[in-house]
Amino acid sequence: MARRVASAILVLHGPNLNLLGTREPAVYGRVSLAEVNRAVQRHAESRGARAVCRQSNHEGELVDWIQSAAREGFQGVVFNPGALSHYSIALRDAVASVRVPVVEVHLSNIHAREEFRHRSVVAAAAVGQISGFGPASYLLGVDALLGGSPEPYGRRAASRRRR
Q1: Which residues are catalytic?
Q2: I need a labelling partner for 85 at 20 to 30 A (CA). Which of 8, 14, 92, 97 fits?
Q3: Which of 125, 79, 62, 124 is nearest to 99 (CA)?
C-alpha cells in the first residue's frame, strides 16, 4: 500500500527539462532543474506543504506518475509537460482521468513563441495553465493548488472539474 503524504504537491517535469541551465538559455534561462526543485520545495514548505519533484523524458512514466498521484497521497500536481504539451493525447487523458487537480506550467510564454507551441492539448484537462514567468511559474502553480489564487479562479474552478 502506498504511503500517505500530508499536504503534498507532486511536481512533474517533462522531456528535456533535465537540461535546464544549459539548454537554450536565452529561452529557458540559466537556472538548473536542481535549483528549480529547491525553490519549489522551499516555497511549498513556506506554505505548510511538501513538494516532491520528479523529471522524466518518457511519456509513459509521466502518465504513470499522474495516475498514481492520488494513491500516493498528493493533493495536486504541478506539471510541465514540455514539448509533449502540444501533442500528447495520452498525457491529456491521464490528466483528465485523475481526481487531483493538475496545474500545467511552462517556463516560457508558449503563446509568444512558435505557432506550433501556442496550443496545449493538456491545458483543457488541467484546472489552469501558467506560462511565461520562468521558474516562478512553478511557484505560482503551487500557490494555485494550495489556494493561493483568488476566488473564483482558485479552489472553485478546481472543484468544478473534480468529481
Answers
A1: 28, 106
A2: 8
A3: 125
For residues 14, 136, 32 and 8, what is the CA-based torsion angle, rounded to 10 degrees?
-60
Burial 27-61 (b: 16+ CB within 10 A, else e): ebbeeebeebbebbbebbeebebebbbebbeebee
Residues whose CB is less than 8 angstroms from the CB of residue 97 and which lie 6 or more positions away in sequence, other chains included: 67
pTM over 0.85: no
Task: List pLDDT tens digits, range 140-159.
Answer: 999 999 985 444 344 334 44
Contact predicate 123/104, CB 8 Å = yes
Statement: residue 108 has pLDDT above 60: yes
Residue 34, H or E segment: helix 33-46
DSSP string, 55-97: E-S-HHHHHHHHHHTTTTTEEEEEEE-GGGGGT-HHHHHHHHH
Answer for the pair 58, 82: CB distance below 8 angstroms, yes or no. Answer: no
Calpha distance 163→159 (Å, rounded): 8
pLDDT in tens, 80-99: 999 888 879 999 999 999 99
